[in-house]
Amino acid sequence: MATSWNADARAFQVGDRLIPFTLYDIALILGLPVRGEPIDCNQSHSGGSVVEKLLNRHLKTTSPERTQLVTLLTKPSIQVPNRVRLYIALVFSYFLFPTTSKKVNPSLLPLLDDRANLGTYAWGKAVYDFLVSGLSRAASSMQAKKGRGNLHIQGCTALLQIWACEHLGIGQKNAEINQPFPRFLAWTHQRMYTKKAREAFSNSANVLSVLVAMPWEQEFNVVEEAMETLQETHGSSHPTISRDDGAGPSNRTQTPSNQLQLELQAERAEREALAREVGRLKDELDHVKAPTLTKPAAHSNPHCGLAKFTVQGCQERQSC
């Protein structure tokens, strides 16, 4: 995906089209707020936060390896409030804000002091900015090395894989999860191989330039705010997002391009619903096929108490 990244447009080149990577994608895929108190992932500070004191006391450093943080979490001496802080720090280090150094980023740790106000921050925007910065550096490095050597991207790279699955229509969602939010819950055990990724990024025929929020997703404030942010930042240059809440005709103009996007999204939603129904029917069928005992039949040996029986259609006879 780094080879398809356009840093100036903050978009991926898919075939002959540029598909924007936006805060709206973050809200739908991760369910994180894109509005709120800003977060600076590179801000320096005094180093006196609760978590940093814990790290210094137990690990003698405020920027340990991520694996050391896992070990610290297992210590029974850590009290519950601090265990919660350490767990969130672990999520930062492994999932939301991973670095190429594989160490804990101390700049975010002071935010964990006041757990009650964690929901007031624009976490989605912080994840987005951190990942975009990492993508742009990786793309620039690839151009300089002309594709040689290993490539490491800082940031939530799992988000990029799910973005590709959602926008390019590749992969298979977990059919057992109905109406998932955030969307990453439905994308488990996905792997994107290089050949498959290149093929997907070379064809723009069935690509969704903008995802359409489903009715159950529109009930969340983070999605509503992200939709408003997208319209404010992209305006007429971005396909219009229409509400699909079944309340009647939208008062927004539907362009042919946007109508196609809606149809593609609806088609995918129907396929996912069908997959869930097939899974449900399969479970019911497996339940019906449970071992059953048939009516005992006469045996050729009157002195034997064994009877003929069938299990799941098997017609083997038991003999003395």
From TrEMBL:
<protein>
    <recommendedName>
        <fullName>Aminotransferase-like plant mobile domain-containing protein</fullName>
    </recommendedName>
</protein>
<feature type="region of interest" description="Disordered">
    <location>
        <begin position="229"/>
        <end position="259"/>
    </location>
</feature>
<dbReference type="GO" id="GO:0010073">
    <property type="term" value="P:meristem maintenance"/>
</dbReference>
<dbReference type="InterPro" id="IPR044824">
    <property type="entry name" value="MAIN-like"/>
</dbReference>
<dbReference type="InterPro" id="IPR019557">
    <property type="entry name" value="AminoTfrase-like_pln_mobile"/>
</dbReference>
<feature type="compositionally biased region" description="Polar residues">
    <location>
        <begin position="230"/>
        <end position="240"/>
    </location>
</feature>
<dbReference type="Pfam" id="PF10536">
    <property type="entry name" value="PMD"/>
</dbReference>
<feature type="domain" description="Aminotransferase-like plant mobile">
    <location>
        <begin position="18"/>
        <end position="205"/>
    </location>
</feature>
